[in-house]
Amino acid sequence: MSPRSAQANQRLHEEQKERILAAALPVFVQKGLAATRMTDIATAAKMGYGSVYHYFPDKEAIFTALIQREMEASAQHIREVLEMPGTPWERLEWWLSRAMIWVYKHPEVILFMTQVLINEPAHEQLRSLVYQLSRTSHQELRRLIVEGQEAGQVATGNPDQLVIAIQSCLQGFAIEAAFRQDHAREQFPDAQILLRLLRP
Question: Coiled-coil annotation: which residues (predicted)?
């Protein structure tokens, strides 16, 4: 096989895996892991039942891949924040702006993560992955808040409490975006709403 053919095959392989993951996410959100079958995912992806098994051995592997994908995206987000120039407040504003846009576009991801923590007690490994992702996000935002407090740009107070307040708002916005899809983009809260909680 030529290098070009190998690259094309690898690209197709990744595209098909992404197709399965994209189709599986809303199925998991709707049914939960326990009630979801591989046939449900195959139907949602418009692929043959056997084709899905070619890429993933079981639904747990798909579930895990979805969580790991979000962990990788979060790690990339952290790198971008750390490399970004500007004041602590400017980095915090950028972080929250990105977070709000992401929540509006992908509310099902937060619902998916919440469902893992609440409804999947039997899958401790998956819950552990979600906890890890949540801790990473918490630590990232906490660092920005502490830097802002040290610079006098963020309100004083317990940084962990401020992080939990912001994250709770984001979760609430995700629920609103998921179940009130008639909202126009301009009606959805922007980062300035959350930044008011942090102004000194």
Answer: none
Homologous superfamily (CATH) for 59-198: Tetracycline Repressor, domain 2 (1.10.357.10)
Question: Residue 74, SS3?
Answer: helix
Higher pLDDT, 105 or 56: 56
Q: Are 97 and 191 in contact (CB under 8 A)?
A: yes
Q: Could you tell me if 70 and 109 are in contact, meaning their C-beta atoms sit under 8 angstroms apart?
A: yes
Q: How confident is residue 182, by pLDDT bands cut at 50, 70 and 90?
A: low
**For 1-57, which CATH class?**
mainly alpha
- The model's pTM: 0.74
Rounded CA separation 77/23 (Å): 24
Alpha helices in 151-190 (DSSP H): 159-179
